[in-house]
Amino acid sequence: MATIDDTIKQEVKDIVVQFFSDECEIEPSEIHMDTHIFDDLDGDSLMFLELIEIFKKKYNLNIELKTIGKYSVKHPVRTIGELIDMQLLIIEHENDILDLA
After folding, report:
1. Enclosing domain of residue 80
2. Residue 31 neighbours by CB under 8 Å, 6+ apart
3. 69 class by beta-carbon count within 10 Å (0-12 exposed, 13-18 middle, 19+ buried)
4. Is residue 74 part of a domain?
């Protein structure tokens, strides 16, 4: 688990935006916090898995995919901003994310 500061927030945002820019072959400047991952970028669930692996390695996270799946059912992610927020929660709380209200 990590303490979230402005540096980590910016890193996560940069990684997410660059990832979708590369995967969807669009300029990073075209991706905003309210960009819809599925409707605007034609994203899919495999992209989420790839991003999770990137963050697991970068921040040495110990979180199970089923935990993220259970959290996502109650807190669906549709936009880039929602994805960034969820990833920050995962970095901060790891498997304890399910204990959040």
Report:
1. 6-99
2. 17, 20, 21, 41, 80
3. exposed
4. yes
Q: Does 1 reside within a domain? A: no
User: What digits encode the pLDDT tens for the residues 71-95?
Assistant: 999 999 999 999 999 999 999 999 8
Question: What's the pLDDT tens digit per position in 4-34?
Answer: 999 999 999 999 999 999 999 999 999 999 9
- CATH at residue 95: 1.10.1200.10
CA distance linking residue 10 with residue 88, whole number of Å: 10
Q: Would you say the pTM of this structure is higher than 0.90?
A: yes
